């Protein structure tokens, strides 16, 4: 229905073959890892000597699911520093992309040697990366029935987390944060509320989501505004959309009281998604055809389209299949990040051996997973509950990403302010209205900061000049922002 439903590949990368995943029976069925069994001590190609321990292995989760993890201890004080879980999105993209191309300590060079990432997050926190759900990266399920959804993925992640604490019981005392990007914006708040239900782990302190998908409708509606405001949609098409798609009514958010309507907020209420009006549909179709006529890198509109990655026939086939399955027009083939070095390195026999992964396993950036997406999902209730529970939140976004654009995330946050709370203590109050933040003497981006009397803080921040994966484009700024988020409880202001 809507071209911009590229949320299907919501992560930096492209879909790629899952046929090679025969990861099953012969393995680790009899897992009895102790910490030291998972210790990685002989990784090849390292250009430096790590001053931290790291561990790789499998976490047993629901129903014979085994999720692969890689855990990097803090370089400072592992026993006291927070534990931070990082999850990539997709659904279907591997969190090892986070570890090896975004915020982890290793960077894979094209000659397959490994450099230290000076912007790694594990300087003062312990970083845990889990490949999820089963069928992603090295993760697998014994019966190979991989069909799953948001709810099961959240439960699977909780079970894997519990398995992690069984392997590393010392870390249960540490402050715990959940972080991730893109489609993980859906399953992380769901995981966090399951943690609240279970009171385990006990020290959940916050969540930080980068270019997250939070609400399917808001996200798609905001994409049109983003494209128009960035010179991609012609004024004529735009005016048609505004005219025919009922932008003068409150459709985006039924809870919104009419009193808050102003010319700008009524424009936000355009409904490009479920609008059945033939004239609106016509305008959207026009736009679909137009958007499909070129390859723009929608993950970072200032970045070139990495065409080499779409010459892969198998990849092309999978891409088409998944767009047909969703019955949606796709904007264009994905212009992926260069994934060759990472894929070659992780598929080396010696690397798999060091990571305690059976040599038969095949790793790819993103797999086409058998995932029932909920096309109307919003995590608003989950995030409201987290705020009500004294948990801090950071929603940040590279401002060059169309796929999960900052505008939709800002709308989502603005809507949270309208929440009806029985307990007045939990109402979000603006502490800092929209303003800039600086890094290294320059504007790092813009932000707003909210607090509740109950003690939660919620921050919305953009990262100027970054695309969908902010740690790829603006690694220093992203780390700076993340550590400000972690340290806010010890300071009287966020920046
Ligand atoms: C591999 O590439 C890295 C980064 O470009 C470079 O620093 C290193 O010297 C190269 N190593 C070899 C053996 O060519
Ligand atoms: C969510 O998933 C869990 C684990 O698979 C299952 O037990 C539960 O019934 C599911 N809940 C819903 C509402 O589908
Ligand atoms: C889909 O998401 C909506 C909104 O979050 C929720 O109310 C509904 O229960 C979800 N449907 C399924 C099948 O999970
Ligand atoms: C933020 O803006 C609101 C509404 O414009 C205003 O009432 C409030 O005083 C401002 N807060 C701060 C901290 O500047
Ligand atoms: C929220 O931020 C304020 C400073 O802005 C800080 O004093 C407080 O401790 C923070 N709350 C939590 C739960 O971190």
UniProtKB/TrEMBL annotation:
Q: Does the keyword Signal apply?
A: yes
The EC number on file is: 3.4.16.-
The keyword Aminoacyl-tRNA synthetase appears for this protein = no
Biological process terms in GO annotation: negative regulation of chaperone-mediated autophagy; proteolysis; regulation of protein stability
Q: What class of enzyme is it?
A: hydrolase
Signal sequence span is 1-18
The GO terms describing molecular function are: serine-type carboxypeptidase activity
Which keywords belong to this entry? Answer: Carboxypeptidase, Hydrolase, Protease, Signal
Which family, according to UniProt? Answer: Belongs to the peptidase S10 family.
Task: Quote the PANTHER family the UniProt record gives.
Answer: CARBOXYPEPTIDASE, SERINE PROTEASE FAMILY S10 SERINE CARBOXYPEPTIDASE
The protein's name: Carboxypeptidase
Lineage of the species this protein comes from: Eukaryota, Metazoa, Ecdysozoa, Arthropoda, Chelicerata
